[in-house]
Every structure is written in C-alpha cells, then in structure tokens.
Design a protein that fits this description.
The protein is about 30% helix and about 30% strand. With about 400 residues, it is α/β, with parallel strands linked by helices. It has 2 domains: about 25-240, no CATH class; about 240-404, GMP Synthetase, Chain A, domain 3 (2-Layer Sandwich). Strands 1, 2, 3, 4, 5, 6, 7, 8 and 9 form a 9-stranded mixed beta sheet that branches. A 4-stranded mixed beta sheet has the order 10-11-12-13. The longest helix is centred in the C-terminal third of the chain and has 29 residues, at about 315-340.
Length: about 400
C-alpha cells in the first residue's frame, strides 16, 4: 500500500513539472519585427524604427482579400537603445518580438557616430539574434524600412534574400551578420565592411501599394556600396568593383560572372561564369615590411567570347585564361589600393601576419591599419576554363566565314 502511494505522489509531481504553459504568450499578443532601423539625431538620441508584419495583410487564406500594407513602420527615441525599445509600449498594444528580425539597417550618420552601442545591445540581450543581417544606408534608416519590394510581401525578408543571392552569385558585396561584424571589429585589425542599401530610379519613395499595380517600378531599393567600419565608426566607402576586389582578397567570392576583354584593345564584352575559386595569402617578411603573396585559383565556363579566335586550339584557351587572370588581378589591385587609402584592413592580411609572425605582430597590431601603404602585394592568378560552351567560334566569326 505504501509503495502505491509513493507511485501516485511521483506521478502527480511529474505532471506538475511537465505542465509548461504557465508563462505562455499568444501570437495575437506579439508584434513580429521583420527589420530594425537605427538613426541618431544631432543631440545623440537614438531613433529606433521597427518594421512590423501585419498578419492579416500577408495571409494566404483562400477568399481573403485585403488592400492593407503588409508591414507597419513606427519609431521611438531615447538616449539609450533599450530605452527606445521600452517606449514602444506607449503606442503599441502588443509586445515587440525580435526573434524573427531579418535585418538591421544603420544610417550613415549613426554609423559615423559609432555602432559600438548596437553591438553592445546584441551581445547582452538574449532576445536579439546575432545572425541578423546588417546594412548601412545613406538615407535615413526609417525611410529605408518604409520601402516596399516588388514580387515580395515582407521587405525585410526580401532584402535578406537579396544579399544571400548577391553573396552566392554576384560577389561584389558580402553577406554580413551582427556576429561577423562583432568578430571582425574585435579581431586583430578592428575593421570590417558592411554593404549599403540605396534607392535607385525616379521618384522619392516606394511606400504605397498603388505602385504595385504597375508592371514596372520607377524606384527600387538595391545594394549600393560597401561601407568601411574601423574601430566602430564608418570611415569611408568602396564602390562595387572596389568591393569585389576586396572580396577576392578575402576569399569570399563564391560564384559570379566576370566580364573581361578578349584582347587588350577591346571593351569587356566577353565573360566567364566562375564556378570555383580559392584565394590563399602567404605573408613574407622583408626587413621591416611585409609582402603578401596572394595565390588565386579560378575555374569556370565561358559564357561569352567576342574575338574571332578558334576555340578548338589549345593556344586560344591559354590566351583566354591569361586575359581572365589579368582582369582578376586588376580588380584585386583596385580593391587593395582603395583599402590602403581608407587605412582599413578588411581582407584579413593582419590575421595572416599574426598567425605566421605572432611575436612581430605584438608591435604591429596597434598601428597596422595606418601602415597599410607600406604593405606590398604580389598577385599570382591561375585560371582554368573548364568549358567553352556549345560553340567553338564566335557568332560574328561564323557569319564572316559564311559570307554574312
């Protein structure tokens, strides 16, 4: 009998422990954040903007029709970021929910002031995910969040997919998360690059559903330039080509299409679809200076070729590979010269020196970025054209042979 009572008491205790609904939060009590914007005013007060998802507007339930915008944007201000978040309860009926936040957009003014406060907020709070994508903008961050994106319902998610697509297939701009920014700013060179968003086209804004009724859009949001962060402040910008050069040096190119001239006197009217690339950096010490030996391997498929050479001849393939190698080298040189002017090592050369020469790095670390103009770079690029496509000669060459 005593054993039976013990079993009953244990069963009741287990049921009590496993009933985990005491602190539940219903979905209709939450405001789901898709994107966050960071601005700052002249007095140093933070302005946080939130892009909230409207569930009724994005519902796919059959028979439901709504002309409501898919998101709602509002802002709060305070001297601290968490203080601005707290003030959301003054105008919202629901609690802010950050776990579905797709991106953080930082205005140029806020980035030049310093992003250390934002990094601190993400490091200290469990409700903020460090995998969130980070962007800069020369506009106000709020204005960026107000823009709609064609073919997508939720702008924050659409822009997140945009940078994923660019990083995987474009190569000019990297996919950058809060965690990666923290990691690189706390690393040896204290520098990183963050892609920026811009409004392109005619008009001032794409914030109305009426614009979705057209077959084209006069204005759109797109990736613009790469912002250079040193310490925790924005110090300058790289354009798309300079950024791609930096990505080559940092070994962050995945797949891309590389235009190149098939002859020195021609424009870049040929292209290679790069399917595999690898860059390895080896630092060499020469006196008090360092030389970076950059070894890059590239392989791909020829997508376009505008010269009249016969692609069935091995000598022609060698010529094409050399032309592509020269173009890769030129792009890398363009990126490195820009980083030297900005005095910001975002490609990891300092990390390579630290790994190979740890004792010397101790005396170099403090002023490494300021000494980049003394760093020499040697480029060794090897290109392999794996396929030339379905034609051995260019279209114009075949026309000439046929008397066209």
């Amino acid at each position: 009998m005593r054993k039976r009572w013990v079993q009953i008491v244990l069963a009741i205790a287990i049921l009590i422990v496993q009933s985990g609904c005491w602190n539940r939060v219903e979905l209709n009590e939450l405001s789901i954040i898709s994107a966050t914007g960071i601005d700052i005013d002249d007095k140093g007060r933070w302005r946080l903007s939130f892009q909230l998802v409207i569930p009724q507007a994005i519902s796919s339930t059959t028979g439901v029709s709504t002309n409501a915008a898919p998101v709602y944007v509002f802002s709060t201000e305070d001297e601290s970021m968490r203080g601005a978040v707290r003030k959301s309860s003054l105008e919202l009926s629901r609690k802010l929910y950050f776990s579905h936040n797709q991106m953080v957009v930082i205005s140029e003014k806020a980035a030049r002031y310093g992003i250390g406060t934002l990094m601190e907020a993400y490091m200290r709070n469990a409700d903020a995910r460090e995998t969130v994508a980070v962007f800069l903008t020369r506009e106000s961050a709020r204005n960026t969040l107000e823009q709609l994106v064609s073919m997508e319902k939720i702008p924050g998610a659409a822009i997140q997919h945009m940078i994923q697509n660019e990083a995987a297939n474009g190569g000019s701009f990297p996919q950058t998360s809060v965690f990666r920014v923290q990691q690189e700013l706390l690393g040896g060179t204290h520098a990183t690059g963050i892609p920026s968003l811009m409004l392109a086209g005619k008009g001032s804004s794409f914030d109305s559903l009426n614009l979705m009724q057209k077959t084209h859009s006069d204005i759109k949001i797109k990736l613009g330039r790469l912002g250079i962060i040193k310490g925790d402040k924005l110090v300058g910008w790289l354009d798309a080509e300079e950024s791609m050069g930096a990505m080559w040096l940092a070994n962050r190119i995945q797949r891309t299409v590389l235009p190149f001239p098939c002859a020195p006197s021609r424009k870049k009217d040929s292209s290679l679809r790069i399917i595999d690339t690898d860059t390895h950096v080896k630092p060499v010490r020469k006196g008090n200076r360092f030389v970076m030996d950059v070894h890059t391997k590239v392989s791909g498929t020829l997508y376009e070729y505008s010269c009249d050479d016969d692609m069935t001849k091995p000598a022609t393939i060698v010529k094409v590979q050399q032309a592509i190698a020269e173009e890769v080298k030129r792009v890398m040189q363009t990126g490195w010269k820009s980083l030297q002017r900005q005095q910001a090592d975002i490609v990891g050369f300092g990390g390579a020196v630290h790994e190979k020469f740890p004792k010397q790095w101790r005396s170099l670390a403090a002023n490494w970025n300021e000494q980049l103009d003394q760093v020499e770079v040697n480029y060794d690029v090897k290109v392999s054209v794996e396929q030339t496509g379905m034609s051995s000669n260019s279209f114009h060459s075949k026309q000439d042979k046929q008397g066209g």
